Amino acid sequence: MDVGAELGRVLRGHGELCTAMGSPFYGALMELMAGDAESGGPTVVLLAPDASDAGAVYRLRLLGGVHRLVLAGDAPALARHYPTTGGDGDAAAAWPLVRGLLGDPPPTVTDALARPPQTNEVGRSAALLGGFLVLAGETRLPLRLLELGSSAGLNLR
């Protein structure tokens, strides 16, 4: 089995899912990672040992580690492209910087590979909105929400 080709297929599929679920930046990065994996680049070097474990989503772990660097201010040039930091969302411009991090990964990135990502889908809370609107309309009282659990307050947005 050609690990780079298989990893490229998996990355492309996951990239399509990211784009369909509203994350075109990650979708585009996954596509670029797929090409890199197929050509034997650093993506395949980092992810090949776990390429067959689709359930562990190592590709998201890897991007999570890069994102952590960006959010911590440790990759300011890359932050200019990350939508979460007010960047332009240009994955093609971000890619050379991401690829450089994959080629010589800092501990934050390699550490992320050992940690399962938190993949809360905050969109699931949208179903509650209709009920909240009915309650607010009927009672004319303010609604206070308290969220406990793994979403870390994301559903309150």
Q: Which helices and strands appear, and what pairs or packs with what?
A:
Elements: H1 3-20, H2 24-38, H3 42-47, H4 58-71, H5 76-79, H6 91-103, H7 107-112, H8 126-139
Question: In words, what does this structure look like?
Answer:
By secondary structure, the chain is mainly α. The chain has helices spanning 3-20, 24-38, 42-47, 58-71, 76-79, 91-103, 107-112, 126-139. It is elongated, with a radius of gyration of 18 Å. The N and C termini lie far apart (45 Å). The model has no long low-confidence stretch (mean pLDDT 86).
Short description:
The protein is 57% helix and 0% strand.
List keywords for this structure.
57% helix; mainly alpha; 157 residues; single chain; 0% strand
The shape is: elongated
- Counting helices, strands and paired strands, the structural category is mainly alpha
- Low-confidence region ranges: none
The overall pLDDT average reads 86
For the termini, the CA-CA separation is: 45 Å
- Share of residues in strands: under 5%
Order of helices and strands: HHHHHHHH
